[in-house]
Amino acid sequence: MASFDLQFTSNPNSIKGRVIRRKKKVETKVAGPTKSLKALFEPKEIKTTNTQSESQKNQTKPKENQSEKIFDKSQEKPSKHIVERKDKSSEEPINKPERNQSAQFVKRKDYQREQSFSKTPENGDGKLVKRKAKKDKLANAAAAREGSNPNIGAKHEKSDHKLFSEKNKTNNIVNIRGVSVVEKVFSKGGKFSDLQIHKYVVSNLEKHGFSTLTKVQEKAIPVVLNGGDVLVRSQTGSGKTLVYAIPIIDALQSITPRLDRNQGLQALIVVPTRELAVQTHEIILKICTFQWIVIGHLCGGENRNTEKNRLRKGVHILIATPGRLLDHILHTASFKTNNVRCLVLDEADRLLDMGFKKDIIKIVEILDKSKKDEEYDPMAMLKGESAEETEESETDSGYCLRNPKSKKRQTILLSATLTKGIAELAEFMMKEHTYVDALDDSSKLNPEHMVIPSTVKQQYMITYVKHRLFTLCSIFVAKSKQNCKILVFMATSQMVDFHYELFSKYLRVMPVNRGKLKSGNVLLLNEGIDSDDEDEEVMDAHFFKLHGSMEQAKRKEQFLGFKKANRGILLCTDVAARGIDVPEADFVIQYTGPQSDEDYIHRVGRTGRVNKAGTALLFLTHEEQEYVTHLQKHKVFLKERDPKEFSGDLCNLMEEPVPENAALALQKRFEEAISNNKELHKLACFAYSSWSRFYNTYPAKLRTIFNFQKVNLGHYVTSFAIKDTPSSVAKVVRRQVSNVEPKRLNKKLATHEDTNEPKKNLKTQSQKRKIKSICFSISENDSGLQFKKKKKN
C-alpha cells in the first residue's frame, strides 16, 4: 500500500491537496517489551499553539503514553494525523487507526469530525477519556490512585463466577407463630375386631399390620356397612382405601351360594391415576382371603386385548381409571354393568381437577340406563307383579351389596378436600347421602383453612435462582447417607426427564481423582473422563422418575422399584401427588411451587402417612417468598431452613473445603456435560421451555406471587445448567418442534366425538377404487406374463 505527502494552503477552509510523490510503505518496528505497537508511522514534528499547557504538564511522561495530538486550524502545514496504540496497562484510551489514514484526503467534513472528536470529556486528571469506556477508565484511575489493583478483566472474572454474581437480597417474611388445624389420625383405641365383619377378614388385616382403626375408619365403615350413600372427607394418608374395601369384601363373601364369574361385575372403583389403580388392587388382594372373589384393574397403557379377555371371563371387583373404563364400556360387548351395586369414586377432587367430570357423568348415566333395562321383565308383567312391589321387598334385605337380586346401587365419594365441585357431583350422583368428616370440630372449621397431618414437619427454603440446582443436589447427598426415600415434585414431565438423566449420570457417578482435577482454585470436572475404571458411585440412593407421558410398563416398573428400594429418590410430577402410598417416604421436596392450595395439601400428604413422621420442604426464590404469608392465612405455618446447612456434605462430595468452590465445580460439571452431549442439551432446552409455559399459567390469586413478568429468565437458564441465552434456547426448541409430526389418534379407541366438529364426507362407492377379482380368470398353466394385443393393420 502506498502513502502520500499532502501539500495544503494556509487557509484551512479551502484545503487543496495534490500528490507530490509516491513513497514506499514504511513499516515500523516494535521497540521495547510491550506487546502493543507504539506507533504505526514515524511521527513528524507537530507545532501546536493551543496545547502547549498540556504538553508542559506531561513532559515527564513517556512519549508512547501521551494522548493523541490534533493539529490547529492556524497551522499552515500540519503534518498527517498521528495515531498511537496504547498498551493495555496504561490509563490512556486506545484509539484504533483508520484504514488508509496516512493516505487519506482530508476534506472539510472529515476535518470537522476530527475537531469534534478532540473535544472528549476529561476526568479529574485532565486526561482525555474515550466516551465508550468512560466509566471503566475512571474506575481504574481511581483504583490506581488509591494504590489498589485496577479492575482489569472484570468482565472475564464475572463470567467465570457468574454463579455468585447476584446481589444480596433480604427475606421479608414475618414468621407468625400459630397453631395449625391438625387432624388426629388414629382413634382412642378402636380395633377392627370391634366391627361387625367376618373373622377371616380381621385376621388377615392383623397379619398385614392393620390392627388399630384410624379416625375416618372408625366413623365411616359402620355407615358404609348400613348400605347408604356416603360422602367422606379426610386428610391424605389416613387409610381411606380400607373404608370401602373392607365392607365390599365382607359383603361379597357373605353371598350364598358363592359368587361365580358368570354373575359379572358387582363393585366398581374409579381412581384418577394408574399408580393408584395398581396400588388399590394390591391392597384389596392383601386383605381378601376368599379366592372365589375375582379382583381386576384397568388402566391406560396396558394391553387392551388382555383386559378384554379378563372382562369376558368375569370380574367381581374392578378398579379402573375413567378413560380406559369408558372405552371398554362403549366398545367391549362382553363387558356388562347391569349388576353393579356399589360405585366408589376415590380421590374425587383429583378426578375433577384432571378433567374427568364429563367421563364420570357419562359412566353414571350408562350405569343408570343399564339398570333400567335390567328392570324390564316381561314375565313379571304377565304375572301381574309391579316394579314397586319388588323394590319394597328388597329394602327389607339390608345392605344391597349382600343381595345379588337387589336393584339398588350404593355410591361412595372420598376426598381430601371438600370443594364446590365435590358438592355438585355429590348432588348429581346421590339424592340422599351421609356426610362423614374425620375432623371432630368440622362444623367450626373455616373452609379456607387447610388440614395438614400433625406428623408432617413443614419447612421452606429461600435460595437464589442460580443456586437452586446445586442446593437440591446438596440435599440429595446429605439424605442419601440415611435410609430414607425422597419425593421431588417438579412442574412438567420434561423437567423430570432432564433432571433424571442429569443426576443419574453426572451426580451419582463422579471421577475417582476429582480432588486433583483443578483449574486454578476450582475443580474442573468435564466429560474428559469417560472410563469406567476412573469413575465411582458416590451416592447409595438410586434415582427414579414418574410422570404421565411415560409408557405404562416403564411407569409401573419405576413406581414398584421405588417402593421396594431401601434408599431412593423419585422425581415426579403431580401425577404422584394423589393417593400414592409409600409409608417409607419421609422427605418431600417441592422444587416448583404448587398451582393451587389443594396441590400443596396432597404433595405434603405423601409423607407422614399412617402416624409416621415426615418432612416437607418447599423451594422458593426471593421473588416468591410471599407464598409463605399466603399459607399463613390458611392456618399453615412453615419453618425456615438455611441452604448452608447442607453445604458441608457437598464439600465432602467434591473434595473442596470452600462451599462456593464446591458448588461452582458441580455447576461447571453439569454445564460441560450438557454442552458436550446433544441429547442432554436438547432435554435441557425442552425442560426450560416447559417450565416457562408452566410458570406463565398460575391462577389469578397466585400470579402476584409467581409472576412470570418479574423473573430473570437468564438466571433460570443457569438453574438448568445451560450456557445459552433464553432466546437461543427458544430457537432450539422451535426448530425441534417444527420437525416433529403430530401424534395420530387411534379412532378405534376413541371414546368421545366432538359434536361441533363437522364430519368428513366419505367417498361414495363409485369413487372407491375397484378391485378386480382374478381368482377365476387365470389358468393354472398360465405363464403369468401379460398378454399383448396385436396391432390392427
Give a structural overview:
With 793 residues, the chain is an alpha/beta fold. It folds into 3 domains: 1-145, no CATH class; 190-375 and 409-440, Rossmann fold; 456-676, Rossmann fold (3-Layer(aba) Sandwich), CATH 3.40.50.300. 35% of the residues lie in helices and 13% in strands. It is built from 26 helices and 24 strands. α19 (597-604) links the parallel β22 and β23. The chain is globular and about 115 Å long.
CATH class bucket of the largest domain: Alpha Beta
| CATH architecture descriptor of the largest domain | 3-Layer(aba) Sandwich
CATH level-3 fold name of the largest domain:
Rossmann fold
What proportion of the residues form beta strands (DSSP E)?
5-15%
Mean pLDDT: 75
Structural class by SSE content: alpha/beta
How many independent structural domains?
A: 3
Considering DSSP H and I runs of 4 or more, what fraction of the residues is helical? 25-40%
Name of the CATH homologous superfamily of the largest domain: P-loop containing nucleotide triphosphate hydrolases
Give the CA-based shape. globular
Give the spatial strand order of the biggest sheet. Answer: 8-9-7-10-11-6-12
Terminal Cα span: 85 Å
Number of helices: 26
Tally of extended strands?
24
Q: Over the alpha carbons, how many angstroms does the gyration radius reach?
A: 40 Å
* Poorly predicted runs: 1-9, 12-130, 148-159, 387-397, 528-533, 752-776
Largest sheet: 7 strands, parallel
